[in-house]
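Supplementary notes (optional reading)

For those who missed the lab, this is the record we used. Protein: Rab8B, RAB family GTPase. Length: 152 residues.
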Amino acid sequence: MGKKAKLQIWDTAGQERFRNITSAYYRGSMGIMLVYDVTDVKSFRNVGNWMRQIELNAAPDVNVTLVGNKSDVAEAERVVSFEQGQRLAAEHGDHVRFFETSARSNVNVTEAFEGLATDVITRLQTQDEASLARVAPLKLGQEESTEKSDCC
């Protein structure tokens, strides 16, 4: 990868009391990570509400990573499948990446953060290159024409 990114993380734990103040943070965000618990269907359903908040308040091209946490639990404890998580991410567009992680076992946690950071860096580089392409090139070292006109 070779690039460094400084991440500022706001963990609201999905709490309603943060819903109003988080709208201000969406505006300046370049990347957003939403995490739900694969053993809690309510947390999974809340992802839709948070996605709507992102669509209303964040930049249209913000990178989003959806994460299903507690992937290390026994299958009997799981109420949200890997496929359901993938499907939900896909429903919200190409800019939404999906991971399953286990914070307890440290599985895919680094990959989820690095994936989001890489997506943001790639998008910003692409935008910078597009901006540069729109600027007319400045030609240095060309001498001004010294031809005289026949006028006056």
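If you only remember one thing from this example: The chain has a mean pLDDT of 83.
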